[in-house]
Amino acid sequence: MKVVRLPVGVYAANCYIVYDEDIHEAVVIDPGGAGDEILDKLNELNLKVKYIILTHGHGDHIGGVEDVRKGTSAPVLIHEDDAELLKDDTRNLSSMMIMGSVEVIPDKLLKDGEKLVLGDHTINIIHTPGHTPGGISIKIEDNLFTGDTLFAGSIGRTDFEGSSYEDIISSIKKKLILYPDDTAIYPGHGPSSTIGREKKYNPFIIN
């Protein structure tokens, strides 16, 4: 399983292309902008996209969704608790962003604990509310895509409508840091990390 990180859009949100190089099948996580760049990388790697999965519905993570959906015919998936946010440019904050208003109709709504398949690999959906009500983390093998829940050395903002500091801390401490220390963390912004590193150095987890 290979992971490609593409920081996209004016907010440099991390879009991830996760793929099985044997069968050339991929999942695209959080195409937040630069849809043409994402499609070019998919074509360069000769990949067929099975799913477009959104860790949450904020505008900086969804700006490239329609371009990627149109270019790949892959379905757009998001947790059921963020579905309405995704479809409303005020609630998803895109109406206030430089990129402009974005509203997306999802193709499938996800639930906590749901499992998807990519080749021989299982995609595990973990509901991690706090930054948004329907925020998710996505575990594929030893890789954990945490969206704006957990960053290297920090956590996601909780000063938005529907956000909750208590919920995001609970999501991290009761779900994410229970994984082995060598589990790789791929966040929605910034560099990658590991569970072990965050347990040791992240001030929001230590305190």
TrEMBL record:
The keyword Phosphoprotein does not apply. One of its GO terms (biological process) is antibiotic catabolic process. Residues 12-189 form the Metallo-beta-lactamase domain. Transmembrane segments: none annotated. Keywords: Hydrolase, Metal-binding, Zinc. SUPFAM superfamilies: Metallo-hydrolase/oxidoreductase. Gene3D superfamilies: Ribonuclease Z/Hydroxyacylglutathione hydrolase-like. SMART domains: Lactamase_B. InterPro entries: Beta-lactamase_class-B_CS, MBL_Glyoxalase_II, Metallo-B-lactamas, RibonucZ/Hydroxyglut_hydro. Its cofactor is Zn(2+). GO terms for molecular function: beta-lactamase activity; zinc ion binding. Pfam families: Lactamase_B. This is Glyoxylase, beta-lactamase superfamily II. It comes from Sporanaerobacter acetigenes DSM 13106.
